[in-house]
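Re: [help] complex structure
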Amino acid sequence: MSPPAPERIPVSGPPFESEAWVGPGLLADAARYLRSPSGRFVLAGARSAAAALDPIRRSLGGRILADVEVDDAESAKTLSSVEKIADAAIAAGLRRDDALVAVGGGVATDMAGFAAAILLRGVAWNAVPTTTAGMADAAIGGKTGVNHPLGKNLLGAFHPPASIVVDPAALSTLSDRDYRAGLVEAYKAAWIADSTLAAKAQVAMPAILAREVPPLLALLAGAIRIKAAIAGADPKESGRRRLLNFGHTLGHALEAASGFGGLKHGEAVAWGIVAAVTVSRRKAGLSDRDAASVLSALSALGPFPEPVRDRRRLEPFLARDKKASSRGLASILLERIGVARVDETVTPDEWLDAAAIMSVS
Amino acid sequence: MSPPAPERIPVSGPPFESEAWVGPGLLADAARYLRSPSGRFVLAGARSAAAALDPIRRSLGGRILADVEVDDAESAKTLSSVEKIADAAIAAGLRRDDALVAVGGGVATDMAGFAAAILLRGVAWNAVPTTTAGMADAAIGGKTGVNHPLGKNLLGAFHPPASIVVDPAALSTLSDRDYRAGLVEAYKAAWIADSTLAAKAQVAMPAILAREVPPLLALLAGAIRIKAAIAGADPKESGRRRLLNFGHTLGHALEAASGFGGLKHGEAVAWGIVAAVTVSRRKAGLSDRDAASVLSALSALGPFPEPVRDRRRLEPFLARDKKASSRGLASILLERIGVARVDETVTPDEWLDAAAIMSVS
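Output below.
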């Protein structure tokens, strides 16, 4: 795995043109990679993202119209937090050709991207993820939004960022637990779509866990390329894009049942993938060898906190899955490493059976 | 002018497919004209819209998931009112393939359309305008949104309704003042794009003011066709769509300076058109004859309440025009009836000079 530095990944799909930049040292030169039709920016940064914010502030200098602090906690991911960002942008005189820059974890990029989607009926924005989860997943594909008391991400918009800047320097203050949880999404991308990347990332696991930059960036760039290809071909999530939800059907229920804050999103997805491996062996012909390979990688990324396994506590959240249409649950199963498919025959009961016996050793 | 009954007007433009239905008696058969992928609807209706809501409720029957009351006052056009609609839809178990139906004036359709835009990152919606303003303008073209303390419509989304149902029965409780103010937008559409429609609607003015259905529907259908053609070719308002803002550059400032509630939107636009006629005579070669024809129609639609003319009170609102880019104000001038153009050379001072001498006799 050789270092891609800096690598430009087009994240296209009409009616938007997006690009991701991946490489070390990009933040110091942020003005070159962040896009704004007018050249002016509203900065929306999480408190915890100082390591990324400081070089961006230096690089953009007087082109910053407003500098808003965003609360990066899942509990603050609300419409009123988005309104706070919008208020600051409007008070600063935001025009249609100005752009936002979101700096932080998935909560910050989801909220600032949603603010950009609704300000003046849509202005451009840029994402600077400061977590492995954000780099691998949250900022790519155009999903923005906030939570609702009745469920996660129930309010939002599809509004892709013009540019996504991925610089490993932004991870410097990320906890080991968050670093590992976020990587689950990167490995997931490889498992559903790229057996070569999955094999390389499996071998490089010790180096990646030691935060070595070249293999980390190779995995992240690979995950971004996969997500860009899948989401770009299906921006409104009606078909193949659902493959990206591998591990998420049960994962979302585990996360919700743990009360948001118990399990990190990536940790819940990891448990969801463990259950999906069980179901995939039975219903999609996943081989023992491939199943063992996925479980061994999850074991290296863990250990993860114990999830809720009680069916009565999990079931209501499975039934209320946002992806459910009138037809039923859309489950993602793995046929072999690199090949996933949508399956609408898996019942909530089958997921709950699999949840009861999940284990990673 | 013969009655189009019922007439289907395609309001296309990717990535959305919309249609408008215009005719008497459509509401009694609403289930046939309102669209929902699942067949289920959330009804969001203004209190004042009972005349339209009752037949819709009877027609949709058990397919109504929730029935939400929307406050149709300009002062209630806020993000928290949108949140109220969204809360009710989510609590009722809204799914991605369900749809909203907005019934009311421009405030109700703007807010319910915006709720549809952000619910589950976008569900389908239908517009049933109950004012002449809504029938001629507000529901067509996909603009949805709410006001902000610092200006009108500063938060919103482009999210066209799947279907727009225009039935004159919905106007039965509309005041004469609102009926006339709303027609300003319909005549405006004719003036910027269709000299034949403008001439016919001029002749039919007494019948239209007497609420005779055939000439009224002919004017409304003509205005919808014009707006659909212009907005469909330019969904994000970067080019020709700005022509629809004829009378709005100064009109928005007059409306804002009157404190929202002083002048109706259509009345402010009427005054804005009077000023635009002055500027168009000087800078766009508008003939005396065409100028007199426009002013005579506005005179028949009036009288309108006296506007603010004080430059110091108007100027801040002109400077803050949402349509302003870094380049300057985009003003719409009339070359002759049926032909308008965008002009970026008109200064705020020229608008304020024209405002000082506006008169309709």
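Chain A touches chain B at residues 15, 38, 79, 83, 86-87, 90-91, 95-97, 114, 117-122, 143, 145, 148, 150-151, 153-158, 236, 322, 324-326 (CB under 8 Å).
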